[in-house]
Amino acid sequence: MKRLLPLRVLLPLALGVIVSLAVLGFAEIGYRRLEFANKAMSAALEMETAVNETLALIGDAESGQRGYLLTGDASYLNPYKAALPKIDHTFARLRELINTNGSTVMIDHAGQLNVLIGKKLNEMESTLALNERSGRQAAFQLIDTGLGQQLMEQIRAQAQSILDELRESSRRGGARWAQDIEFGRVGMLTMTAFTIALLFVVWALARREISAREAKRRTLIEEQRRLEQEVTARTEELSELSNYLQTVREEEKSRLARDIHDELGGILVGAKMDVAWAAQRCKSSLPEAAEKLDRALAILDEGVEMKRRIIEELRPTLLDNLGISSALDWQVRQACERAGLNCELNVADIELPPEVAIALYRIVQEALTNIIKYASARNVDVELLADDEGVSLIVHDDGAGLPSGVESSRLSHGIAGMRQRVRALHGTFKIGSRPGTGTTIEVFIPVPKNAQDAQTIDQEISPPLLPSPAPSPAS
Ligand SMILES: Nc1ncnc2c1ncn2[C@@H]1O[C@H](COP(=O)(O)OP(=O)(O)OP(=O)(O)O)[C@@H](O)[C@H]1O
Ligand SMILES: [Mg+2]
What we know:
Bound molecules: adenosine-5'-triphosphate, magnesium ion
Radius of gyration: 64 Å
Number of helices: 11
Largest sheet: 5 strands, mixed
């Protein structure tokens, strides 16, 4: 069975409970012994009082009897008569106390005292009876035998023995009591010392536990920090790589656009000039051929237009020639016009580093493609603003909104591409939608103010990537 608490906690706890029970036991035993000693003490006091009282009553009875015999005055008999029932009563109480609390020796002495008291009372009664029957002289003769005196001495001796025995047992009880108190004191001291030791052990264990936890927490924090650093470094590397790949891709597209422009453009223009010349010549002599050549000219024009579109797709010449603001303006207007959308544009006239400009241009391109393909929107808002920290772009449509889970879908390459471009430039990308309110894309790319200014100067002094200006059918 699995233990609920570890042994190092369970053990001091169990010992703590045992020590508490032991302290309780000691206190209870001490109380019981004290109570017992207290009862024994008050019983001893009561017995001593009863013995002394019995002796005094017998003395009273004897004095009354003697007074009567000497004076013949009957009033002297009153104390005698009054003492007799009291003697019975007091001695009965004494015997009861001795039988309950006294030792066997005391019980023996009480028995003998009982016999002696009986004899003494008989002796006094007999003397009085003789006085009644045979006169005072006869009574005095009986007294003179010394029997009464003897009995009284024996009674006193027996009473003294009981008192001595009582004192002895009180002394023994007192000694035992002192011993008990000492035992209780030592026991309490031991338990208290043990409790303090136990508390110390618990304190040491708790300290060790806290230190262990603290060390574990520190290791975890350290490990977390290391992992975070690793993730940041990897993310940085991936962003760099992505940035590099985007740049390479854009450069590749640029090169392709330039080749198509220079080579295919030259071929098409040459072919067009030759066909135009031939068509001119055939116009009067070979009208059928001239007609075919005119058709070929029209096809060549289509080829030129297609070449221009392909070049524009590969590398937006407007971006290179007129900058991000004009390129975006043109791109949005063109797209909205083609798709029959109302567009609201708020594009600040700014200059940006080429990698930021092309990223924003491509993001707007993908966003517009998606709006036209999926949103069934009527209005599109595009906003491009810049401040000291960077540039922000917002593209909003009032279409159907995103289907659920599309943000994290691995098939959403368009959205993933937008996000990746922004991340590569250390920016933030958000796409969100609520049913009935369309979709909003928010992008922020940090571009320090001085980089924006520098770009303006660069832009002024460096030639554009593609030499051609705004698209023209001839180029
Ligand atoms: N503006 C929008 N309004 C409504 N739905 C949209 C909008 N933009 C994107 N979506 C939804 O999000 C999905 C993912 O878009 P994403 O551009 O990532 O991929 P795609 O357009 O389907 O494919 P790709 O862009 O790779 O050709 C789309 O299929 C579409 O359902
Ligand atoms: Mg798409």
